[in-house]
């Protein structure tokens, strides 16, 4: 399979009162066609901003992509003009947001919000767009689609609104769907339904997904590969099985330990001590070092690079660098 | 929707009754009475007493109120005490069109200028242009309209001679739209100045708030250009609080017209109001109060209905 999206050394900084805040600091990411990738990390690690950078919707004024490439099917999105970018958004790349309660416009009908995207990106008449909208609503599970078309968002529940958002996102058969914590605001039974829906639909539409979440349960449900972010950088990248069973980076390990388990012995839930440092005061060495229980001298003084340790896994940690060098030496 | 409008209309009745009672009382509290102005000072005490008796001005105030209200309910606003033989209705109806014209044109100018500026400022916040508009808005809010009116007359009319100093039309000239507009423009702009200024602030704040909402991000993610995002998705939401403000601003236009009509010698009900008040022409004052109250109440009613149309979340 070929790569659909390649992000190289993406840096998105905020400029506030002469202070530079490196919120996304050199992220590399690859998504293959039809693949689902999860971007995982604590609040404030830069995962949402990475996705907004792909869409070129970084909050302005202040936020800016300062460096890097975002290649979508051979086109560098960072080089496009605003007008060209408008054609990409909603058609090639679309997005589902975390807050279904507030992501739909309260004064427009559901139908209007669907029809307007279709008309915006495809050369179809309004009645045709209407038909397609009804069809989409049926696909995402509304049996009374025609009535829903005339409804306003405030009459729908959170789960229903998220379904509408999915219908809007898939309306132009995007190549890439970015789902920014799509189930965080929903209750657990609805979460499962929405995940099931996304899983089925992306197969049907052959869409790649970039799933942004801090919920490892969601990750194991949907994703094939996991990218772990910390402090605006990727710290580990590996297939889902490998990461759940054998995490390399101490931070990934901490994240997995922090998930309560239904089986096994009952013990106190693991927590990672401290908080994500604010991006304007990252430590000199490894950004995770102050919170890491395996940290040693070198971690506090030098900044590790992201290095491949096997065909499918890479990690940004000195613990494995030595091992790798040793192996190279032995060979 | 229709039941909502009917219910809302019925609710205005107690409001109007309340206003009439309070203002009837307040008018009587002012010192002086109608005889002081037009009766020969040499008149004998008996004749004066007979006059007061004749017009029922010696009755206790509640009795006067009930008599007056009884006539109102029969559609009779009474007779002017000063301009003998004229009914209050005639006097008000002769002047009302002028005032309505002034108010409506003034409101249209205020909205047409304030909302685009507010929206523009909100899309480019904290820039030089935004600060410039903000400064002018504050100046507009802080400066009394009559003073702006006096400046306008002094400079634009007297010094430069661009506009007439007052009145609705040039005397002894045949009717012409251009002439009427020429007379209208200055008082209309001046009357709306402070409301224009505060509307600019309201629409800016409201739009700033709306443009920060999640559904605006959704609209951008759909690939709409800035204009469509702001005007289709932003403006309708941003106008909802502005509509509420409009209802509250209507009294300003009516109250303001009293002073502005005096400044520009505009023969509307405002000018009539001032004259009636100085002459203690009780029936005329009450008639004018009731007409103004009705205008305010109807304006608020319209604002409420518009509000319900604009915001589908309102259940009625």
Automatic annotation (TrEMBL), chain A:
Gene3D superfamilies from the UniProt entry: P-loop containing nucleotide triphosphate hydrolases
SMART domains (UniProt xref): AAA
Recorded superkingdom: Bacteria
InterPro entries for this protein: AAA+_ATPase (IPR003593), ABC_Ni/Peptide_Import (IPR050388), ABC_transporter-like_ATP-bd (IPR003439), ABC_transporter-like_CS (IPR017871), Oligopep_ABC_C (IPR013563), P-loop_NTPase (IPR027417)
Places the protein is found: Cell membrane
Span of domain ABC transporter: 5-256
Membrane topology: Peripheral membrane protein
Molecular function as annotated in GO: ATP binding
Keywords tagged on the record: ATP-binding, Cell membrane, Membrane, Nucleotide-binding, Transport
Pfam family name, one: ABC_tran
CDD domains membership: ABC_NikE_OppD_transporters
PANTHER family cross-referenced by the UniProt entry: DIPEPTIDE TRANSPORT ATP-BINDING PROTEIN DPPD, OLIGOPEPTIDE TRANSPORT ATP-BINDING PROTEIN APPD
Family of this protein: Belongs to the ABC transporter superfamily.
Protein name: Oligopeptide transport ATP-binding protein AppD
Annotated source species: Oceanobacillus neutriphilus
Gene label: appD
UniProtKB/TrEMBL annotation, chain B:
Superkingdom as given in the UniProt entry: Bacteria
Protein family according to the UniProt entry: Belongs to the binding-protein-dependent transport system permease family.
Membrane topology reported for the UniProt record: Multi-pass membrane protein
Keywords carried by this UniProt record: Cell membrane, Membrane, Transmembrane, Transmembrane helix, Transport
Presence of the UniProt keyword Membrane in the record: yes
Occurrences of domain ABC transmembrane type-1 (ranges): 96-307
InterPro entries listed in its UniProt record: BPD_transp_1_N, MetI-like, MetI-like_sf
Transmembrane segments: 9-30, 100-123, 135-161, 181-199, 238-264, 284-310
A Pfam family hit: BPD_transp_1_N
Alphabetical list of PANTHER family matching this protein: DIPEPTIDE TRANSPORT SYSTEM PERMEASE PROTEIN DPPB-RELATED
Protein name (record): Oligopeptide transport system permease protein AppB
Subcellular location: Cell membrane
Main location: membrane
